[in-house]
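Working notes for the structural subgroup meeting. M.R. asked for a predicted model of this chain before we commit to crystallization trials. I am recording the input and output together here so anyone reviewing the notebook later can reproduce the run.

Input as submitted:
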Amino acid sequence: MKIKNIKTIAYFLQLFFHEIINSIKVYFMYLKILKLLFRAFLLLIPFISYTQIYEYKNGYWLINGSFKQKKLYSINGIFSFKKPNRIDSIIDLKNGFCIPPFGDAHTHNLDGSWRLKEMVQEYLKEGVFYVQILGNHGSNTENTRKILQQMNTLEATYANGILTSTYGHGFYPYEPMAMGIYAPILQIKYADSIKKSRIVENNAYYFLDSKEDVDKKWSLIAKYKPDHIKICLIDAENYVTKRKLEKVDDNGLSPEVAQYVVKKAHNEGLRVFAHVETANDAKLCAKIGVDVLAHMPGYSWNGKPETKEKYCLKTQDIKFLKQKKIEIIPTFNLDYTSDYDENGTETKHSNESEIMFQYKKELLQNLYKEGVNIALGTDLYGRTLKPEIESLIQNKVFTNQQLINILCTKTPQNIFPKRKIGLIQEGYESSFLLLSNNPYIDINAIKNIQLKVKNGRIIQ
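Returned structure, recorded in token form:
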């Protein structure tokens, strides 16, 4: 019995020490893993972003329509009016005036890598942080987005192609450019060859002559993941007659197709921007639910009295646009009152130009007064927002306060409507421009930017 008890005790002692040894092995194994993890953490420390908290002092901030001197804070790229427990850096604004950054709501720039970085620098120099492309090659967008993300300064949204009818606006200028034909006089000379070409169809433009075309090509339109949809209407009430003529660049979608596109786009959460020419085009857009007019109707009016009624909006039309909550990018700077002969020689008509700009000035003032949201864009390839701003200032279209409101608030919010930008408020993105003078007093102060800050980060 004693021998059996001794053996039993020995057996249990053996099991006990075996478990202890296993536990020690497991402990050292976990310890080794912890050491490896700790070493990895040490290696990663330089790459871990440390949330910077900034205090901005001695600045006059545009808050609720007036400039107020106070301290503001940026916490993880967001404005705060409350002093945080920790401040990493204090930035002295030296009694400068702080306004939200600008946006360009209608351009065709940033379409591929050609002069991409140069255009970004030009925009930033002028204080533009947000850009909306309303026509481009969809095939270029993915790579362009990557480059912009790497630069981490300018932000852009893309239409990735223009929706039009066969030979309609959008076919020019993209197809001639794809063929290497740039000069207008050469485009006229080789018009027949251009009409036969389809190099960038379903890329820079889409021909949609029926609802069936829309359904057939919608997957191609969605292929490049557009941020918004751009359609063309050019005197749409006369679509049938104009379509039969097949005159290049002189047509757009039919009213029925345009309405169908708007419905499909909205079902997928995409806003629709429309190129318009006439007053009836604008009213049609309001009826079918277009979100934004890419031009003011009559932007291309030649200033001649006999055509004014066709292109120009009346007071009741403005009220209708307001009722339908449609926004407008006027492209005020564009002037189509000149004539060109077959050699491309320009003949200017200064009287018609003056009449045209006076009409556009009065229309914009009435639109603003009625409460229609206005956003700014130049629509000049290779140019920034500057020509549009200069033209509005030169023609004294808005008061300084109104222009700043459109430039700093309405335009950025048109480009990114779901983001908290365009205002200096609690919880909004801490992006701003520092000016040396008050732009309400001197609008030219916006041309002298002392400091650019985007989401709390100073842009050099």
